[in-house]
Specification:
The protein is of the alpha/beta class. The protein has 18 helices and 10 strands. The chain folds into 2 domains: 344 residues, TIM Barrel; 112 residues, Glutamate mutase, C-terminal domain (Alpha-Beta Complex), CATH 3.90.970.10. 51% of the residues lie in helices and 9% in strands. Helix 12 packs parallel to helix 15.
C-alpha cells in the first residue's frame, strides 16, 4: 500500500464514508450536516478546542480526566461525578478495547451483559454500540467538554459516531497506535485510517466547528524525550494536511524536572517551527502533560505524591491542560471515587501554583536538556523527511523499516526495537542503546557520559538489571532502584 501525505479529495472522502458508515448499523444514524448544526448550537464552553485555547491565552492550566464504562447510565453518571466531585475541567470518553478493534457485535453483547448483571463488563464506553443519540445523552448531561480517548489502528467509525454525538476532541494518533496497539499491521495502513479521521476533523473545522486533536506519538518506556517528540510531530504534520487546525501536544512526563520542563518547551517550539516550514502557520497548538505509563504504587500515599509531582511539573512547564493517573489503579480498574480524589489532588497543585510565575526555562539544567533534546529531534525528523523526499508519510514508512524511527518494547513485530532507555544518576531518561537512530557522535557520547555518572555513583555497570529496576521503580515511589555501592 502506497500512502503519501496528501489531502484526501472530497470524492475519496465521500466514497470512503459510505464504507465506514456501513461497518455497523449505528453508522446510519450519522448525518454530517445535521451533526455540524448540532455542534453549532452547543455552548462555546463545551467545545474542547475553544476552551483550551482560552486557557492557553490566559496562562491557565486545566485538568482532564480519562475514564469510561460500558452502560449509558453508568458512563453518564461517571463523567458527571468527575465533573462535580473531581472538579475536572474536561472529561473524556475512554473507548473500550472491543470497539477499538472494530468488534462491535461483541461490544454490544458486553453492554447487554452489563445491564443484566449490574456490573461493568467492558473496559470503556462502546461509542458505536450506543449510537449518536446515546453519545449525545452523555455530552448533554455535562457542562464541560467531552473528548474521545484511546489509540487503535482503526477508529474511523468511532469518530463518525462520537463526533456526531457531541464529542469535541480526540487523543491518540497513527504512530502510537502502530507502535503499541498492533502486531503485524503495516504502518501505512494505520496512517491511512488516521488520514480519514483527520479529514473528518478537518471537515468540521471547515464548517466552523473546531475539533481538538491531542497527538500521542508513542508510550514512554524509559524513553528519552526525542523518542516521543519526533513521532508526535510526524502525527501533527499528517493531521494538518487533512485540515486539522487545533493540535494538543502530549508531553509524557517521566519525573526528572529539568528534563520534563525542557521536553515541554522544546516540543512546543519545534512543533511550531515544522508547522510553519510545511505551510501551516494558522494551526493552533497547546501543550498537554501526562503522567508516565507503567507500574504505579499500590500505596495510596505514594500514589498521591507522584500525582502531585507530575501536576507540579505540568504547571511549571506552562501546559494548558494536564491528565493524571489514579490512586487505586495499581489494584483494579479505577473507581470513580479514586479517580475524583486523584483529580482533586491534581487540581489543588494547579491552584496553589497557578499564580506563581517561576521561570525554569532559563535554568542551566533545563537549558542543557533542551539543547540536547532539540539536536536529537532534528536529527530524527530531518532524516525522516529526507528519506521521504520531503513527504513525511513516505519517510516514516522507510524510516521505521531502517530503524531510524524506533521504539523499545513495541507490540508491533514490524519495528526494529533496537533502542533502549535507562535513567541516569538524577533520574533523567538516557539512551542505553540508540540503535539505528541517526545521531551524531556528540549525542551518543553525551548519553554515555550521563550513564557513566550513574555507574560511578552505584559502583557497578548500568545494564539490563538497571533497566528492569528503573521500569519498576515508580511502583515504590522512586525514579530508580540502585543498591548502594559496597563499602
Amino acid at each position: 500500500m502506497e500512502v503519501r501525505n496528501e489531502r484526501l479529495s472530497d470524492q475519496e472522502f465521500t466514497r470512503e464514508r459510505k464504507t465506514v458508515l456501513g461497518m455497523w448499523r449505528t453508522g446510519r444514524e450519522v448525518d454530517l450536516e445535521e451533526a455540524v448544526e448540532y455542534h453549532r448550537r452547543m455552548a462555546p464552553g463545551k467545545n474542547a478546542a475553544r476552551k483550551v485555547t482560552e486557557a492557553k491565552r490566559a496562562g491557565a492550566t486545566c485538568v482532564c480526566s480519562s475514564s469510561g464504562t460500558d452502560t449509558l447510565d453508568g458512563h453518564r453518571e461517571l463523567l458527571r461525578f468527575l465533573q462535580t466531585e473531581g472538579q475536572a475541567d474536561f472529561v473524556t470518553t475512554y473507548i473500550d478495547s472491543l470497539t477499538r478493534n472494530c468488534r462491535f457485535d461483541e461490544a454490544e453483547a458486553g453492554v447487554r451483559k452489563a445491564k443484566e448483571t449490574g456490573k461493568a463488563v467492558l473496559n470503556g464506553f462502546p461509542v458505536v454500540a450506543h449510537g449518536v443519540q446515546g453519545n449525545r445523552a452523555v455530552s448533554e448531561a455535562l457542562n464541560v467538554p467531552v473528548m474521545l480517548w484511546g489509540p487503535t489502528p482503526d477508529v474511523r467509525l468511532v469518530h463518525e459516531v462520537g463526533l456526531a454525538g457531541g464529542h469535541t476532541g480526540y487523543s491518540a494518533g497513527p504512530l502510537i497506535s502502530f507502535w503499541n496497539y498492533t502486531k503485524n499491521v503495516p504502518v501505512e495502513a494505520v496512517i491511512r485510517n488516521y488520514q480519514y479521521v483527520n479529514r473528518l476533523m478537518g471537515y468540521y473545522e471547515e464548517k466552523g466547528v473546531p475539533i481538538l486533536y491531542c497527538v500521542s506519538g508513542a508510550m514512554p518506556a524509559l524513553s528519552p524525550p526525542s523518542l516521543m517528540i519526533a513521532p508526535e510531530i510526524i502525527e501533527v504534520l499528517i493531521a494538518v494536511k487533512q485540515g486539522v487546525k487545533h493540535i494538543q501536544l502530549n508531553s509524557w512526563l517521566q519525573g526528572n524536572i529539568a528534563q520534563d520542563v525542557a521536553y515541554i518547551e522544546v516540543f512546543s517550539r519545534l512543533a511550531r517551527e515544522y508547522l510553519d516550514l510545511f505551510g501551516h502557520p494558522d494551526t493552533e497548538i497547546n501543550a498537554y502533560s501526562a503522567c508516565p505509563t507503567g507500574r504505579f504504587p499500590t500505596d495510596a500515599a505514594q500514589a498521591y505524591g507522584l500525582i502531585a509531582l507530575f501536576a507540579a511539573i505540568g504547571v511549571l512547564g506552562n501546559v494548558a491542560m494536564m491528565g493524571t493517573r489514579t490512586i487505586d489503579e495499581a489494584h483494579h480498574i479505577p473507581t470513580k471515587e479514586g479517580t475524583a480524589a486523584s483529580l482533586r489532588c491534581c487540581k489543588t497543585l494547579v491552584n496553589m501554583l497557578k499564580d506563581q510565575r517561576l521561570n525554569l526555562v532559563d535554568n542551566a539544567a533545563v537549558i542543557e536538556e533542551a539543547q540536547m533534546i532539540e539536536k536529537e529531534v532534528r536529527a530524527i525528523l530531518d532524516a525522516v523527511i529526507d528519506m521521504g523526499g520531503g513527504d513525511v508519510v513516505v519517510g516514516t514508512s522507510r524510516a521505521i523499516e531502517a530503524g531510524i524511527l524506533d521504539q523499545p518494547y513495541a507490540t508491533s513485530q514490524l519495528v526494529k526495537g533496537k533502542v533502549m532507555g535507562v535513567r541516569d544518576v538524577e533520574g533523567a531518561a538516557r539512551y542505553l542503546d540508540a540503535g539505528n537512530l541517526p545521531f551524531s557522535r556528540e549525542i551518543v557520547q553525551y548519553h554515555k557520559a550521563k550513564i557513566a555518572c550513574r555507574e560511578k555513583a552505584a559502583g557497578r555497570k548500568v545494564g539490563y538489571d538497571a533497566v528492569v529496576g528503573d521500569l519498576t521503580a515508580m511502583g515504590v515511589g522512586r525514579l530508580r532502584l540502585d543498591k548502594e555501592p559496597a563499602e
